[in-house]
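Possible regression after last week's pipeline update?

I re-ran a chain I had predicted before the update to compare outputs. Posting the input and the new output here so someone can diff against the archived version. Not blocking, just want to make sure nothing changed silently.
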Amino acid sequence: MYKFKSTIQLFLISSLLLISACNDNSNTEAKAVKPSVPVKTTAPGKAQQATKILYITSVGWFHDYQQQIKTISNNINQYMNADIDVIVGDIERLKTTDFSNGYDLLIYNFCHAAQRDDALVQSLISPVTERGVPLIALHCAMHSFQFDLQWAEFLGLHTLRHEKQRNITVEKVGEHALTNAFSDSWDLTSDELYITLSKNKNAIALLQSYGVETKQNHTQAWLYKSGQGKIIGTTLGHNESTLKNANFQRFLANSIQYLLGLELTISANPSVTSSVNLLSKGVVYPDQQEKKCVIHNMFAIGGEKVKSCVASQCTENSILAQCTAQCQQDNPWPVPESLREACQSNELTAPN
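New output (post-update):
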């Protein structure tokens, strides 16, 4: 029988396997002091000094990150003048260089759910907490590094899984300078509603949505001071339909402006398109067949190891959930990148 390592570890369960939902107490902290942030009602003029943004993403096994680079960068430049550099994957660069040096703001839009790499986690955390570089954290960044509690502590919110994709209604929470000019609610077509397991008491909820499956509200965007830096996170943004939603686009751009103390621009200039500077060289995005193979084998290999552990170790019903969590803790799923070469060579395949 397994001897459990700690209470905290028992809750670090993969979103792909977690079956229980926890309470979101974000509504009790809805109100915040209203900062003095001016609102600009016209589209941005290109004469303003460009904001230097570093956008960090990955090739995308569950998301179309290649397209998202274009959509998000265009959206930002329709509201403000920004020079956007992009890192795709490039884990060693992130771990061995001062990648944030010279940038006004960072954007993390990646999905590293199965990654267990403390050096990578520290390299992503330190620019914000130690040097005060503001951060926008998007969607699956919150489901990354699921077995490293410091990642959730850094972000100010802990989530491990989402409800099924469906249309959701986004609502403002309380009064805040960032969202005061928005309508009270708006609808999104087919997005993933992330389930809030816990939220730091100092994190200010900005947006929320009601979960049909969990029958309660969950925080969908928040503001949090993490060490020396400020973070605005949003769990929205799985599909292109959300990224092209006018309210989401404005919220994202205004969040950047808010963190930098700039005027909040209400009106976009749709004629503006953005060019980005790709810092990573030789990026090859997976095609659909490669994605299918990698995802299938990630589930098959990772799930089988956990299943075998549960069958052999978790024999008492009274502690089945805790024991299952320990099996997940002790039997890491393979990260997608580790399966890619085997799928390319047909050593690993997926059912048709």
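Follow-up from reviewer: compared with the archived run. The chain has a mean pLDDT of 87. Marking as no regression found.
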